[in-house]
Amino acid sequence: MEKTVTHVALFAAIIAVLGLLPNFQLGFGVPISAQSLGVMLAGTVLGAKRGALAVMLLLLVVALGLPLLAGGRGGLGVFVGPTAGFLWGWIAAAFVTGWVMERWSSAPVLPVAAVASVLGGIVVLYAFGIAGMAMVLQKSLPEAALLVTAFIPGDLIKAGIAAALTASLARARPGSLMSRRAS
Questions:
Q1: Which pTM was predicted?
Q2: Where is this protein localized, as stated in its record (predicted)?
């Protein structure tokens, strides 16, 4: 139990720290940042439940007002802005990424982590993000989907980085991937 709490807190902190990296603010209010890499890693390393808990912990601290999101944003207002769908989607993204890792635990880590990161960290995340942007920006779903095309190249790179880091961790510390152990 204590290890789980420590790991969840560590990955919440990793996601927060990745928000400190320089980001690019797009004209429609959604920044391109490295934080989704942390969400992918939370899923690939911690698994579905723990990965989602790490994201929920970060979002709780953000809701309390700490400026831990890209660009130093925090507070309740971020949950009703153009990024709201992406923020809520982080929970599902980490869960799905971890779920894929858990289900394919007998397959090699690198390809599974890559597929898991793309499915959870891009497909699922974009579904939430597009829906949120469509509502907040009063756009149709296709219009909102067109806006997020700017994210695709960077997110594919982040999925590759998450897969490579996860595979490296598995090689360096066999048994360290909680996503590959029975809960």
A1: 0.93
A2: Cell membrane
Q: Which two tokens stand for residue 60?
A: 């709780």
pLDDT tens track for 60-99: 999 999 999 988 899 999 999 988 999 999 999 999 999 9
What is the SS3 assignment for 139? coil
Rounded to 5°, angle at Cα 42 from 78 and 126: 50
3-class secondary structure, 31:
strand
- Quick one: tokens of 100? 């894929």
- Three-state SS at 56: helix
Tell me the domain boundaries of the chain: 2-180
Is pLDDT at 182 greater than 60 in this prediction? no
Q: Tokens in use for 168?
A: 């490296």
Region of 177 on the Ramachandran plot (φ > 0 left; ψ -120 to 50 alpha; else beta)? beta
Q: Are 171 and 53 spatial neighbours (Cβ–Cβ below 8 Å)?
A: no
CA distance linking residue 10 with residue 17, whole number of Å:
10
CA dihedral 119, 146, 136, 19 (to 10 degrees): 60
| Contact in structure between 8 and 43 (CB atoms under 8 Å) | no
